[in-house]
């Protein structure tokens, strides 16, 4: 932290020594994660690295040990519904959309009485299609449209942090771009923790990131220097940063191998 306190502002959420054991098996060993107070923080890692378990641990959906600070307050012992009331929105990996309900009904379920009125203006501005499809059963939406419902629900309520788990998974490139654009705009309104494997999306959206390897944090810091280092991304993520899933790296993607002094790798 510099004298002005601006270079490294206090993280919105800080998880330390996060450990999860399920059925006698250690899934998370020592995860530390800082979510920046602005913009998008990416949580990266190969399949099975523990990304979803980490967000579920933060939300109290799996038994965990370690400490979690939200805005500097210890929320480690809080149950999921309390954390949600404290302003953490969650769009899960399976999207969690109620398929038999309409789009409008799905959104209405996300309204949180007692807080400020639901921000339908923001949601309809980001996802105009959802207004047009308000009466359509969510189960008949495309994967991308269902993802939009899932993200929209997190934005309706007065959340101070939104967590989205693999928002672009399984989507066609054009829809990936649409979802990324919406998240980019959403992140101007509320900080986002985004689990993502598409490095083009990470490059576009995230300023900071953490990489998990086998349930441990192996990198925490700025996203750009990591993504500019194909050797590091190959080692940590199993994919060189020039070649992303689906080949969706933009032609202007940075290719410099120069490592910034900010690059920190906790594990060699
Ligand atoms: N409830 C559970 N019971 C047993 N094992 C689990 C459970 N949940 C997760 N795991 C295991 O923990 C490891 C991490 O899983 P997790 O879903 O967190 O990975 P991930 O990084 O989100 O992977 P992906 O990219 O495939 O979504 C995996 O080996 C998984 O099989
Ligand atoms: Mg996952």
TrEMBL record:
One of the protein's GO biological processes: L-amino acid transport
Region entry Disordered, spans: 237-268
InterPro entries: AAA+_ATPase, ABC_transporter-like_ATP-bd, ABC_transporter-like_CS, BCAA_Transport_ATP-bd_LivF, P-loop_NTPase
Residues of the ABC transporter domain: 13-239
Swiss-Prot/TrEMBL keywords: Amino-acid transport, ATP-binding, Nucleotide-binding, Transport
Record's keyword annotation contains Plastid: no
Annotated Pfam families: ABC_tran
One function term, GO molecular function aspect: branched-chain amino acid transmembrane transporter activity
Family, similarity comment: Belongs to the ABC transporter superfamily.
Protein name as it appears in the record: ABC transporter ATP-binding protein
Naturally occurring in which organism (per UniProt): Streptomyces montanisoli
């Amino acid at each position: 932290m510099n004298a002005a306190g601006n270079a490294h502002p206090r993280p919105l959420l800080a998880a330390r020594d996060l450990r999860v054991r399920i059925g006698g098996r250690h899934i998370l060993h020592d995860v530390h994660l800082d979510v920046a107070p602005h913009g998008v923080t990416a949580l990266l890692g190969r399949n099975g690295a523990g990304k979803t378990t980490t967000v579920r641990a933060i939300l109290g959906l799996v038994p965990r040990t370690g400490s979690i600070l939200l805005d500097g307050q210890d929320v480690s012992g809080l149950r999921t519904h309390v954390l949600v009331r404290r302003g953490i929105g969650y769009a899960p990996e399976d999207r969690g959309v109620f398929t038999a309900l309409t789009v409008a009904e799905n959104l209405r379920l996300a309204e949180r009485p007692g807080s400020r009125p639901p921000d339908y203006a923001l949601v309809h501005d980001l996802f105009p299609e959802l207004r047009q499809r308000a009466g359509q059963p969510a189960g008949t939406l495309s994967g991308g449209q269902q993802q939009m419902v899932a993200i929209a629900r997190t934005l309706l309520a007065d959340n101070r942090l939104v967590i989205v788990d693999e928002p672009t998974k399984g989507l066609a490139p054009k829809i990936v771009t649409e979802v990324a654009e919406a998240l980019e705009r959403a992140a101007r309104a509320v900080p986002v923790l985004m689990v993502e494997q598409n490095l083009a999306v990470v490059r576009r959206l995230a300023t900071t990131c953490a990489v998990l390897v086998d349930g441990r944090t192996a990198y925490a810091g700025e996203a750009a220097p990591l993504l500019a280092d194909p050797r590091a991304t190959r080692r940590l993520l199993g994919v060189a940063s020039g070649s992303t899933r689906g080949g969706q790296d933009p032609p202007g993607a940075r290719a410099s191998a120069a490592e910034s002094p900010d690059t920190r790798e906790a594990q060699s």
